[in-house]
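Lab notes, practical 5.
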Amino acid sequence: MKKIIPLFLALLLISGCSAERLTPVINEDLKLSAIYKTGDFSFSCEIEKKGNEIKFTPTSTKAKGLIIICNGKELIFKRKNFSKSFKVDEIDKTNPALILYQVFSSLESAEVNLIDDKFCYKGNCTLGKYILTQNKDNSFHSLEIPMAEISITFEN
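Output from the prediction step:
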């Protein structure tokens, strides 16, 4: 009996020292301005998330005014009076709206760490591993997909 009590107390102490569970907040709806970069090419854009849908709108280059909407099943391209939809598997995997949809859809299963006062999500999309960083105030900092040489820097 004397040996069981210290063992029980030791187990109780060890279980009380578990790792802190990080709980960053991902808003269901958000609107962000960002710089999208792929290789040496970059442009500014607006990113809007409403529920289960991502809306990506370039605000510079000749693509200015194009709206790309991804809901996970299809991508819809809109510009003035033009509208065309495609199934997700018919679209190039480097499409920005598709990438953002995949990243935001997978955040609940992503690994989360606190690094340099930023939440760092590490997960996978069809282009490989991604790293999404979020500031402690829950605003987004950046998204990187190193294997595809794609990065998005969010403007606050």
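Observations recorded by the TA: Residues 1-20 have pLDDT under 50 and may be disordered. The longest strand covers residues 41-50.
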